[in-house]
Structure formats: C-alpha cells, structure tokens
Amino acid sequence: MPRGSDMRPPLPPFTEETARQKVRLAEDAWNTRDPETVALAYTEDSEWRNRDVFLNGRDEIVAFLTDKWRRELGYRLRKELWAFTGDRIAVRFAYEYHDAGGQWFRAHGNENWEFDANGLMRKRYASINDVPITPAERRIAI
Questions:
Q1: What secondary structure, in 3-state letters, does the chain show?
Q2: Which of 84, 121, 124, 139 has the least CB density, counted as fewest CB within 10 Å?
Q3: Tens-digit pLDDT profile for residues 29-84
C-alpha cells in the first residue's frame, strides 16, 4: 500500500461528489501560488501540455510554475467541474492576473486530467486564452 504522502484523495474512480472535491482541492492549491505545493499533486513523471509548452515531471512543473507566478502577479483562479469518468476529470476555468506594467488579464480555458490509482495527476492538458481587461472588469477577487 502506498505511503500517505504518495496518495492524494479523493481517489478514482470518481463520483460527482469526489470529482467536485478534486477540482476544489486543485483550485485551492493553485491559489497558494506555491509551485512546490502544487507539484505534489502530480506524479513524478507527470505529462503536461500547457498552451504550447510541454512538460514532463515535477521538476519541470515547479520551474514552469515559478516562472509563471513571477510574471502573472495577483493571480487568482476559479475552476469548475465540466465532466468526469473513472480516472479522468475535465474542468473549465478562469483566472485573472496583472503583469508588471499593471495590465490586467483574464485567462479562460479547459483542462483534461488523468489520475493514477493513488489520486496523483499523471496527465494534464490545458488550452488557455488570455484577454486584456480593465481593473473595473475584474470578476475574481484576490
């Protein structure tokens, strides 16, 4: 049996309730903006596609997220369950951030997730579009 640190409940196969829990846990982790914390939810050899960037493994995930949150200031994310089955979950999301010059953006996207038996995400494929917004158009509070 895996050690507790090797498991990330809820575990597949997912029900609607456990899929929603998994989405909420992911949202909470990403909103910490702590790359090391976020990376622990993924397998050691996790496979990612984030826009046009392809990553493999936790070390690349940590480096990617460190750079991301260095550029995307004031980052705040909301995720919503879209669909689930067995060991897979699809979400849609939006997040807002500003750059160093003060320009705000809202990013919209979809993610497809696949989990191992221990509840660690082994695959994450994200499609994302950014839209410049004014501070008055913000919807997600920091």
A1: CCCHHHCCCCCCCCCHHHHHHHHHHHHHHHCCCCHHHHHCCEEEEEEEEECCEEEECHHHHHHHHHHHHHHCEEEEEEEEEEEEECCEEEEEEEEEEECCCCCEEEEEEEEEEEECCCCCEEEEEEEEEEEEECHHHCCCCC
A2: 139
A3: 999 999 999 999 999 999 999 999 999 999 999 999 999 999 999 999 999 999 99
